[in-house]
Design goal:
Holin_r1t; mainly alpha; 85 residues; Holin; 3 helices
Length: 85
Amino acid sequence: MTTWTFWRATLERAVRTFAQVLAAVLGADAVDILTVDWPAALATAAGAALLAVLTAVATPGGPGATETPTPSRADPLAARRASRP
């Protein structure tokens, strides 16, 4: 939990969760985008993202046993190094 890799993977998970929940709330509303209750939709997505962070912190070993952050574009060999045993 004290490593940059842990927090980077956790941040990525929280952002993905936020986007997925926001898309689900907007899709479930099935109305014009201008009539959406934006504060409620954003609050729901933010709450889900917070739960994703708390889950990662509470899970021994971090965010998923095999989950790692997306390799940086600046380091094209990072994915290859990460997949090595």
